[in-house]
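User: Second chain of the day. Same drill as before.
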Amino acid sequence: MAVLHATGLAHSFPPDGMLFEGLDLEVHAGEVVALVGPSGSGKSTLMAILAGWVVPSRGQVVREGVVRTGWVFQNPHGSARRSALDHVVLPLLARGRSRRAAEPEAQLILARFGVSGIAGRPFQALSGGEAQRLMLARAVATAPDLLLVDEPTAQLDLATSATVNGVLAQLVQDDTAVLVATHDTATRDACTRVVDLAEFSPAVRAAA
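Assistant: Same format as last time:
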């Protein structure tokens, strides 16, 4: 069971001031936690710290049971000519599945995210919403202990955003801790808990 314990986190990019400070956070497997706050408040930076990719200016992060980390970026990136099915099959192959076993499993994962109908289409032919859901499906296929999702609806229209938010609500799994950086109130509401970085921002507190 993946668990994150963050204590006394603070981070800055000199010569700028602190993005956030005094942040304590605990995230358990089975939670989908929304990270909200104004632009520049450090949402993506905090996710990188929690993943162990950035060392905080102060504080520490303890990761229990976190071996595999997945990251779904704001702008979906895929192999243009590869099919949607191939994108989900690949991480299954990397986990030791045979191609024969991986394809039906990938189909089930695509169906979970409502995109089974695009399995044979190349990535370059997908709409923005389809591509974003495919990236979520691919991330789940890696069986991550920690899944980081950065602004999943920022580039999408309202109807497509609603579909992606519905997918996010399904990401609650017993063996995965999920963090979602977002400005979207509907995305926030699809999560199980909200952490507002404005509460830990010296600049916001000084302006209040």
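The mean pLDDT is 90.

User: Great, on to the next one.
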